[in-house]
Amino acid sequence: TWFMRGEFAKAAAELETALKLAPRDYDVGYTLGLAYLKQRQIAPARQIYNRMLRQLGDRPELHISFGRAFREMVFLEEAIDEFKKAIALDPKTAVAYLWRGLARNHQGDVAGAIDDLTRYLELAPNAADRADVEQVITDLTNANAPPPAPEVRPASRAPCRTAHRHPTSPAPSSRDPDGRPGARVRGPGPWRAESRDLRRRAGWQGT
């Protein structure tokens, strides 16, 4: 199809015709909206999705699907807005918190992401991806924690080696715990755990 070939303008035209023949076909409507989003056209995508809501009913599942489409194309505000609508319709829709949490993390709202992912696990304690989500929460929490206070060591009575230090050598305070001058400890970063989870969940519609 045109969509699979990346010809999104042609795909949209083809899908518009198909939607006129089957106006209640979810797959056609969703893909048509996504074809517009692939072209960075939010307005026509919103029009299609709003039409689907009128025809299929204002349900949390639809808002979650639309939110995921917006998030895929990094329209994060629009994605979060759809997830909020799903939660407003049913505050116990666990997967809405999951996807809103991931969108918030992508947006840089770490505290909001942690809150949403924690709420997801509260509502879905037996979720198959619980271990993955817990790891994301741990990584985000650790990344957001304040750095530890520098260790203060008492002055040594031994001869000061810094007196013989070359002027261009880094000061002892710039050394890491292994004694390497100027080294910095690099952590995995929370995005790696999230990206691993998302790759594993590719195409998953949630439960």
The gist of it:
By secondary structure, this protein is mainly α.
Could you describe the 3D structure shown?
It is built from 9 helices and no strands. The chain has helices spanning 8-21, 26-38, 42-56, 60-72, 76-89, 94-107, 110-123, 130-144, 190-200. α4 runs antiparallel to α5 (76-89) and α7 (110-123) packs antiparallel against α8 (130-144). The longest helix is centred in the N-terminal third of the chain and has 15 residues, at 42-56. It is elongated. It starts with 7 loop residues before the first helix and ends in a 7-residue tail after the last helix. Residues 166-193 and 201-207 have low confidence and may be disordered.
Task: Please render the helix and strand layout as text.
Blueprint: H1 8-21, H2 26-38, H3 42-56, H4 60-72, H5 76-89, H6 94-107, H7 110-123, H8 130-144, H9 190-200
Mean pLDDT: 81
Uncertain spans: 166-193, 201-207
- C-alpha-based Rg, rounded: 25 Å
Query: How many strand segments?
Result: 0
Q: Characterize the overall form.
A: elongated
Q: Proportion of β residues?
A: under 5%
Q: Give the end-to-end Cα distance, rounded to a whole number of Å.
A: 29 Å
Q: Give the biggest sheet.
A: none
Q: Percent range for helical residues?
A: 55-70%
Series of H and E elements: HHHHHHHHH
Tally of separate helices: 9
The secondary-structure class comes to mainly alpha
